[in-house]
Amino acid sequence: MAKHIAVAGKGGTGKTTTASLMVRYLIENKKGAILAVDADPNSNLNEALGVEVQNSISDILFDIKKNNVPTGMTKDVFLDLKLHQALTETKYFDLLVMGGPQGPGCYCYPTELLKHRINVLDQNYAYMVIDNEAGMEHISRETIENVDIMLVISDATSKGVRTAGRIYELAKSLKIQIGEAYLLVTKIEDPSSLQKEIDATGLKFLGAVPYDPLVAEYDLKGKPMMELPADSPAVRVTREMFEKLSF
Question: What is the pTM of this model?
Answer without folding.
Answer: 0.89
